[in-house]
Structures are given as structure tokens and as C-alpha cells.
Write a structure and sequence with these properties.
The protein is mainly alpha-helical. The chain is built from 9 helices and no strands. It has one domain.
Length: 270
């Protein structure tokens, strides 16, 4: 009687991991390597200043209107819910503290995540993906032009700059919208609202919020550029890369948000 056992049938999942055992790690490694190269070229000449300005304007143009459309109702909803809770507790005069703290520490950076990754990063990925399938990237390499220095670095820096500016805009909208809604709709005392703004929010919270937005923008830019440059195939591959950019950017940015928030809480002791 033979002791040999029948061969186990390979499932699609086992077949994939047998052929590509390190595919996810290679993707993450490639992302980090390209990100490091992009930041290294930011301090090397020649710096693509014109491309940086053009990309900053491009990302700002595609992100500004969505930012306004998301920030205004989002901040009003948060202020409305917060004021209802504070009224039940008899502390309606603290609505200014809650509106400022929520807008600056969480609402501003989170709206920045949604807009920069959902609008700006996808546009950059589609642009680079289209250039890749048209073999423009290979043509640049043949001419001795480094695509990371020429295309990626300006886009990553532009994404970080626009995210920083959008975060400031959302914070202003959050505090201003909270004031208008609280005072004119829910009858909160204007002086008490203004006095409570600095109760929980100071320079440290503003700095941490700005750091969050800057890091979010840089990460979204790196993810978008990486997915755009590794596209293979035709137009369908570009569409898939754009969809993956949104998913990967959201996953990375939410994790980074938790880490930076935890560090900020420890530093500010709040």
C-alpha cells in the first residue's frame, strides 16, 4: 500500500502567495524608497520651481470647492450637536471652546484628508498614470531626466503646501461657522463664545493641527505619484490606480492621524 498522499489542490489565494510571496512588502518598500528620493531631491538643484507652482495651483483649484462644500455643513453639524449636549448640561457658554477645539484639532485635518486624498491626489495619479502608459516616463529616462526629481518632488511638496492651506481655511470656517450658528441660531452669548475659544485651544494645538495637515498632504502626494508611476497596461489600469490611490491614502492617513493625535495629547497633556 502506497504511503503517498494526494496533492492538495491549490486555491487562487495560495497560488497568488506562492508566486508573489512578498508582493505587499515590495509595494510598501517601493513607496518608502520613492518617498525618500522625493524628499532628497527637494534639497538638490535644480529644483523644479515652476512645476511646483503649477502643481500647487492645480491641486488648489481642484480641492478648493470640495473643501468649502464639505467644511461648511460638517462644522455646522458638529456645532449643532455639541450645543445641544452643552445645553442639556447647562454649559452652553462653553460652545466656543468646543467649536474651536474640535475644528482645529480634528475637523480641519480630517476634512483635509478627505479632500486632498479624494480630489488632489487622484488628479495627480491620473496625470502621471496617463504619462506612464504613453511611455513619456521612459522617454524622460532615456533623455537622462530623473522622473522623481522632475515630476514627483514638485507634486509631493505642492500637495503638502495645499493641505496646509486648506487646513487653515477649514479651521477658520469651523470657528466662524460655529460662532454664527451658535449665536444667531441657538442663542449663545457672543461674549461667552469668544471667551471660550482659547479655553482649550492654544498655540500648541494650532501647531499640531498644521503638522497633521502637512504630513497628510505629503503622504497623499507620495501615494498618488507612486501609483501613477507603476501603472501597467492601458486606460483601465489608470482607473484602477486612481481608485487604489483613494483607498491606500485614506488607510495611511487615518493611521497617521491616530499616531499624531496620540503624540499631541501627550505633549499638550490634554
Amino acid at each position: 500500500m502506497s504511503n503517498t498522499r494526494p496533492a492538495r489542490e491549490k486555491t487562487p489565494a495560495s497560488s497568488f502567495f506562492s508566486r508573489y510571496p512578498t508582493a505587499p512588502l515590495q509595494a510598501v518598500g517601493g513607496l518608502f524608497i520613492m518617498g525618500a528620493d522625493a524628499f532628497r531631491f527637494a534639497f538638490r538643484r535644480p529644483f523644479q520651481g515652476r512645476e511646483f507652482i503649477d502643481q500647487s495651483w492645480f491641486v488648489a483649484r481642484v480641492s478648493l470647492v470640495p473643501t468649502l462644500l464639505v467644511a461648511i455643513p460638517f462644522t455646522v453639524l458638529v456645532s449643532f450637536t455639541l450645543n445641544i449636549l452643552l445645553r442639556e448640561l447647562g454649559a452652553a457658554d462653553l460652545s466656543g471652546a468646543g467649536a474651536a477645539f474640535g475644528s482645529i484639532t480634528q475637523i480641519g485635518p480630517m476634512v483635509t484628508v478627505l479632500i486632498v486624498a479624494g480630489a488632489g491626489a487622484t488628479a495627480m495619479c491620473a496625470d502621471l498614470g496617463s504619462r506612464t502608459i504613453r511611455e513619456e516616463i521612459e522617454a524622460m529616462e532615456v533623455l537622462g531626466i530623473n522622473p522623481v526629481q522632475r515630476l514627483v518632488t514638485p507634486r509631493v511638496l505642492a500637495s503638502g503646501l495645499v493641505a496646509l492651506l486648506l487646513n487653515s481655511l477649514v479651521c477658520i470656517i469651523g470657528v466662524g461657522g460655529g460662532y454664527v450658528f451658535s449665536v444667531f441660531v441657538q442663542g449663545v452669548n457672543p461674549g461667552a463664545f469668544a471667551a471660550g475659544i482659547t479655553l482649550l485651544t492654544g498655540t500648541q494645538e494650532v501647531v499640531i493641527s498644521s503638522i497633521k495637515a502637512l504630513v497628510f498632504g505629503l503622504i497623499a502626494g507620495v501615494v498618488a505619484c507612486y501609483r501613477g508611476l507603476i501603472v501597467t497596461g492601458g486606460a483601465k489600469s489608470v482607473g484602477n490606480a486612481v481608485n487604489e490611490t483613494v483607498v491606500y491614502a485614506f488607510m495611511a492617513l487615518f493611521v497617521v492621524n491616530v499616531v499624531i493625535t496620540a503624540i499631541g495629547v501627550q505633549l499638550t497633556a490634554r
